[in-house]
Design a protein that fits this description.
With 428 residues, the chain is of the alpha/beta class. It has 13 helices and 14 strands. Strands 10-9-8-11-12-13-14 form a seven-stranded parallel sheet, with helices on both faces. Strands 3-2-6-7 form a four-stranded parallel sheet, with helices on both faces. A three-stranded antiparallel sheet has the order 1-4-5. The termini are far apart. The C terminus is likely disordered. The chain binds ligand LP7C6HRI and potassium ion. It is an enzyme of class 5 (isomerase).
Length: 428
């Protein structure tokens, strides 16, 4: 390293803290690294495991954009900042810090019911103790650093060490909302900066994440023999694995289908081949953002995956034979009829037959054929092993007929919705 690279640089923090009146814990690093300053957000180095650790704590896919990362923090009532407002530092070397000036944590502590402070590493804990604790009167819990330099700590070990943070947080139970109230909620989320296209991206990624959990569990159980990394690596990024029988993803023509197209893109990118079944070519779809999402997915699928356009019943059955998982993204909240039109009725029957043969069926938002609002079930309705419902649960999922076809219900928390719930029409 040359003489100049050894010199300390004066750094001002420059990234606004994340918190609001619901924040319950305060997580503090030392100072944004050069990569974080470049990304204009905390823990921006792609190899830093902070976001993967938090996501794993809550069993969610790792957030990608700064907006998603902010949402994740606020949803879980976590405030995030750093101990220092400015210092002199060499690169990202905490050991080189001089002339340290602390941030005014009173800004957060006076606005939020912070129960506990956590420091992400030895340097932030030491500087917090010296520069902040006398003013805050709150002792901090020291957590291991998630930086790539802390290579001795594997991701699973970090996740275990961070569990006390999650244990401090009160759980948010999303309310059951009528379908028209979900539409209002979407509009409020969009007005606050997260559009339907971004929600669909998150929905599809969450679906892919749930599929991946099923696939990796099957490997652990010895049902699948493809060589994949162990399940505790679920948060890591793209990688390739030898192809097993592809996951079959059934996509309808509306935005429920869009969730399926996005899920296909992620699974393929993560190394899990897919067979996507659709009645309409991506370019002929009308609903947005489904059309844009489908075109993007179609263009990105690798050679191990394929799209079957209007396949025969025999081709559908062949795709399902031996498949580990079938994703039902045919009909979502837009369906409210007594009968399902062809070919979707036949595809639903094929999914249900495949489930009887052992294929795991995951429904996107709501099992197709079930009215998300009333819980009435069409003659042909998907029988799911699990349903990943988007943003909030809908009443139909809990009506007697609905509960019978949903399997295990999980809500995908696609956005920070608490600020928008006041006055929302809830079903229960
Ligand atoms: N809630 C959210 O914030 C998000 C929801 N997403 C997903 O979007 C769907 C709702 O999408 P929408 O386009 O409104 O409706 P659907 O896709 O459910 O259905 C419309 C589709 O279905 C066809 N159709 C209607 N009736 C029938 C019938 N009887 N037989 C056959 N086909 C029928 C219609 O022609 C349309 O093509 C929601 O469920 C979520 O999955 C976003 O992805 C993210 C945010
Ligand atoms: K569905």
């Amino acid at each position: 390293m040359g003489e100049r690279a050894q010199e300390r640089e004066h750094i001002e923090h420059g990234i606004a803290p994340v918190f609001d009146g619901r924040s319950e814990v305060l997580v503090l690093g030392t100072m944004p690294s050069p990569a974080s300053r470049e990304a204009a957000f905390f823990y921006g180095h792609p190899q830093n495991r902070f976001w993967r650790v938090l996501a794993a704590l809550f069993d969610e896919p790792a957030p990608v954009t700064n907006g998603e990362r902010t949402d994740l923090l606020l949803r879980h009532h976590i405030a995030l900042w750093d101990v220092l407002a400015s210092c002199d530092i060499r690169g990202a070397s905490d050991a080189s810090i001089a002339n340290a000036r602390p941030n005014d944590l009173g800004r957060i502590l006076s606005a939020a019911p912070i129960r506990r402070v956590f420091c992400t590493g030895a340097t932030s804990a030491r500087l917090y103790g010296k520069l902040c604790e006398p003013a805050t009167g709150l002792a901090a819990v020291k957590l291991p650093s998630t930086s790539p330099a802390n290579a001795a700590w594997s991701l699973p070990r970090l996740v275990e060490a961070y569990r006390p943070l999650a244990a401090e947080l009160s759980l948010f139970e999303p309310p059951v909302l009528d379908v028209p109230a979900v539409v209002d909620l979407e509009a409020a989320i969009a007005a606050a900066g997260t559009g339907l296209d971004e929600l669909m991206e998150r929905a599809g990624r969450f679906l892919a994440y749930e599929v991946r959990k099923v696939l990796e569990a099957r490997v652990m159980d010895g049902v699948e023999t493809v060589a994949v990394r162990p399940a505790d690596d679920l948060q890591t990024g793209p990688r390739r694995s030898p192809a097993g029988v592809p996951t079959v993803i059934f996509c309808g023509n509306g935005n429920n289908g869009g969730d399926g197209w996005v899920a296909a893109r992620y699974l393929d990118a993560w190394g899990f081949p897919v067979c996507l079944i659709t009645a309409t070519d991506a370019s002929d779809l009308v609903a947005e953002p489904a059309r844009t999402a489908a075109l993007r997915a179609q263009a990105s699928l690798g050679p191990a995956s394929r799209v079957l356009l209007s396949p025969s019943d025999a081709e559908v059955a062949a795709a399902l034979r031996g498949a580990p998982v079938a994703v039902d993204a045919l009909l979502g909240t837009g369906f409210a009829h007594r009968t399902v039109r062809a070919p979707f009725d036949r595809w639903i029957a094929a999914i249900n037959e495949a489930r009887r043969q052992g294929v795991f069926v995951l429904a996107a938002d709501v099992p197709s054929g079930l009215s998300a609002q009333t819980g009435e079930s069409a003659a042909t309705t998907v029988q799911a092993d699990a349903t990943l419902t988007m943003i909030v649960p809908k009443p139909g999922l809990f009506a007697p007929a609905g509960a019978a076809v949903c399997g295990f219900v999980r809500t995908a928390p696609l956005a920070y919705i608490e600020p928008f719930l006041k006055g929302a029409r809830t079903h229960l």
